[in-house]
Write a structure and sequence with these properties.
135 residues, single chain, 0% strand
Amino acid sequence: MCGPKSVPFDLGVVTFALSAATDAFVLWRFRAPLGPDCRRLYPCLILFSHGLVSINYVLGCVLAISDPEKFIGRAMGPVWFAVYCGAFAIIWAGLGVRGMVVCSRFSRDGGREAESELHEETAVETKAPENTSKC
């Protein structure tokens, strides 16, 4: 653990496990027909679990700023630990929102819209540029 020495419990173990379990559960459940309640529940589960990971990083950032003495002698000092936690709090919050949006689209139309968007994005990326020179 790269956090403070005085905190023996790492909340990240719990939040990361919850996030991974939620993602696996939602992917598994999408193989079955969805009822109307599930269409609202699954995007919220994604946002909630990723939000907990983000909150965990925010707590680490606050701890590093409010009590820097706990970080003396650690692999990262308090400033770099706060920067690390702040960056990953933003990343996980963004992943939660993106996951919620994708899950909502998939829930709404059974995946047809989300799948067609994915194919359009890959087609644009792999499309060869047209030769416009006049030789």
